[in-house]
Write a structure and sequence with these properties.
15% helix
């Protein structure tokens, strides 16, 4: 009696799921219910003909630039943001499309790719940000554009505000422009210090107005409940060391808030036992040129996990922003300050110190 040996390491699969591998070769035969060799996850498809690890819809060999230059980019590639000092530091995709002649600060921001998914011939950077003496230039990788790059130049006078926030490795810089539009640049939070340098370079574009500040320092961080928020306090001290002209005007610590009346209030009180809602800490400081608010990314939070975010919202006093204040619809003791025409909204306590500081420093505009 003889038996036909089954293929070595054969893996059983469902008959209706068995791929069609064509005519069996001389290496052996397989039945419709066994599979001898299995391709990598993702396979080689028309959208992914080169590597199973490539991003769908992208052909690594189709990217722009000199292969040698791409190899150098790949050798230095990682999640970190790198400075751009000379044209040779520009990623190949942006070469010849970004002017560095008068740049005060320039950085290149990488794509959110794993190292194993980064190819030597792939465009590895999403953005190049350049701060010039009178403008900010943001060049972004845009496959829909014929050149593959979209370049946006914004005059300093058209920048109404900037906000920069980071939560662990999730960073986001937004530049708010006249007309209500926004330029957003996501980045890896490990390079938050580099982005802070870009943010400070943008702040230096704002000239001090002729109207004096006229408000003395009103609070001491060592007093009150803000002293318990060590992360926010440390961030403030780092900020004012870089700009000693900033004056601390008002601050508040984290505080428990309750829902407004009706059924929602009853349900909120029941949930307070297990998951209370807090208005997060914040502080306001100002100089003759600008107002800066340090806060958390989420103004109101009911998460049980510790809050790990830090954020700055910075407004030039000469921007012409209008502050519209109203009570929060859902929470008692909370006021909302809308900075029109941007989409920025601040949530502050209703006791008035922080709200008054923001209104007094921007009212003249």
């Amino acid at each position: 009696m003889t038996t036909t040996p089954s293929p070595r390491h054969a893996l059983p699969v469902e008959p209706d799921c068995a791929p069609d591998w064509g005519t069996p070769t001389a290496l052996g035969t397989t039945s419709s219910s066994t599979l001898e060799v299995r391709p990598p996850v993702g396979g080689l498809t028309t959208d992914n003909p080169v590597s199973p690890w490539a991003v769908p819809g992208e052909l690594p060999g189709a990217d722009s630039g000199d292969p040698d230059r791409h190899t150098a980019e790949w050798a230095h590639f990682g999640p970190w943001i790198l400075p751009v000092r000379t044209p040779t530091d520009l990623p190949a995709l942006f070469s010849g499309r970004v002017d560095l002649t008068s740049a005060r600060v320039a950085v290149k921001i990488p794509r959110p790719l794993d190292r194993r998914r980064a190819h030597r011939v792939r465009d590895l950077y999403d953005h190049v940000v350049v701060v010039a003496p009178d403008a900010v230039v943001v060049a972004s990788r845009t496959p829909a554009e014929p050149s593959g790059v979209r370049v946006t130049r914004v005059a300093a006078r058209d920048i109404l505000a900037i906000d920069d926030s980071v939560e662990l490795l999730d960073g986001y810089l937004r530049i708010h422009l006249a007309g209500g539009t926004t330029l957003g640049v996501p980045y890896n939070g490990s390079s938050h210090g580099v982005v802070a340098g870009v943010r400070d370079a943008i702040r230096k574009l704002w000239l001090a107005p002729t109207v004096p500040l006229g408000i003395p320092s009103q609070v001491d961080l060592r007093d009150g409940d803000l002293s318990e928020d060590l992360a926010l306090t440390a961030e403030y001290h780092s900020f004012v060391r870089a700009d000693p002209t900033m004056v601390l005007l008002a601050a508040h610590g984290r505080r428990h808030v309750r829902a407004r009346g009706g059924l929602s209030r009853l349900l909120a009180r029941r949930s307070d036992w297990g998951r209370p809602t807090y208005l997060q800490a914040a502080l306001v400081c100002a100089s003759p040129a600008q107002v800066a608010i340090a806060h958390r990314r989420a103004w109101l939070s009911s998460d049980r996990v510790p809050v790990m975010s830090l954020a700055w919202t910075i407004v030039p006093r000469a921007s012409g922003i209008t502050v519209n204040a109203r009570d929060h619809d859902g929470w008692e003791g909370v006021r909302l300050l809308r900075l029109d025409p941007t989409d920025l909204t601040l949530a502050v306590p209703a006791d008035g110190a922080v709200e008054r500081a923001v209104l007094d420093t921007l009212r003249w505009a």
